[in-house]
């Protein structure tokens, strides 16, 4: 059975593009550590999730029934910071000092310093396992409304912990868990049968979309299943942009 939910803004039409205001905020972040390709490859996904899909808000960052978003691909946080600024989680002028000594915005987001951030990222490859643990914790508490969405890169799925997390989530039927894989073909060895097949064989429901088609992203990210985790493979070019 498939259920379609629209959490944050049910009246909003499918978006056509990231607003220019968000792009202006992103342009305020400079420096070699900005990781432009990584940041731009995730911008559309981050905007659609936070503006249209996730049940999150600046005044509810401690609400136990909020949705959880985990950025595993944390080495390119510029787009994430720009989206958080656009939606009121952080002040826009903080973007001018990212990575500086006095800034709360580091080159990896820190959940103890940045409102709305759920994990402190670092070494790649751990976000999906953390998301599985978060989904299990919410289930144990009887909180069945909140979704857990994790954004990963295809390259970090080479880490062995992800193999365990994919298998466990499928076996336990974590229906409130969604894994968005921004896929730019950077995995070292690739995946026999394609990346989507890696999830499908473990019992996940999987869809593949263009990482920059916001209407398609909105449609597929709204979908959840009561008893199956969902993976969305968002395809992008190796240095960002449409394939």
From TrEMBL:
<protein>
    <submittedName>
        <fullName>Transketolase</fullName>
    </submittedName>
</protein>
<dbReference type="GO" id="GO:0000287">
    <property type="term" value="F:magnesium ion binding"/>
</dbReference>
<dbReference type="Pfam" id="PF00456">
    <property type="entry name" value="Transketolase_N"/>
</dbReference>
<keyword id="KW-0786">Thiamine pyrophosphate</keyword>
<dbReference type="InterPro" id="IPR029061">
    <property type="entry name" value="THDP-binding"/>
</dbReference>
<dbReference type="InterPro" id="IPR005474">
    <property type="entry name" value="Transketolase_N"/>
</dbReference>
<feature type="domain" description="Transketolase N-terminal">
    <location>
        <begin position="35"/>
        <end position="235"/>
    </location>
</feature>
<comment type="similarity">
    <text>Belongs to the transketolase family.</text>
</comment>
């Amino acid at each position: 059975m498939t259920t379609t939910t629209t959490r944050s803004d049910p009246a909003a039409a499918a978006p056509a593009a990231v607003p220019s205001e968000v792009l202006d905020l992103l342009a305020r972040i400079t420096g070699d550590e900005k990781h432009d390709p990584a940041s731009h490859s995730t911008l559309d996904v981050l905007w659609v999730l936070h503006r249209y899909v996730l049940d999150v808000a600046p005044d509810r960052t401690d609400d136990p029934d909020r949705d959880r978003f985990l950025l595993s691909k944390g080495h390119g946080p510029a787009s994430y910071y720009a989206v958080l600024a656009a939606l009121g989680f952080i002040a826009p002028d903080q973007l001018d000092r990212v990575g500086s000594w006095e800034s709360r915005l580091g080159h990896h987001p820190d959940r103890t310093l940045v409102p709305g951030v759920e994990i402190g990222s670092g070494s790649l490859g751990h976000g999906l396992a953390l998301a599985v643990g978060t989904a299990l914790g919410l289930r144990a508490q009887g909180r069945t409304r909140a979704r857990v969405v994790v954004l990963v890169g295809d390259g970090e799925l080479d880490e062995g912990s992800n193999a365990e997390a994919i298998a466990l989530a499928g076996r336990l039927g974590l229906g409130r868990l969604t894994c968005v894989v921004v896929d730019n073909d950077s995995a070292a060895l690739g995946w026999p049968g394609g990346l989507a097949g890696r999830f499908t064989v473990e019992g996940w429901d999987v869809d593949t979309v263009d990482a920059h088609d916001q209407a398609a992203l909105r449609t597929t990210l709204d979908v959840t299943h009561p008893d199956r985790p969902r993976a969305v493979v968002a395809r992008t070019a190796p240095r960002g942009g449409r394939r």
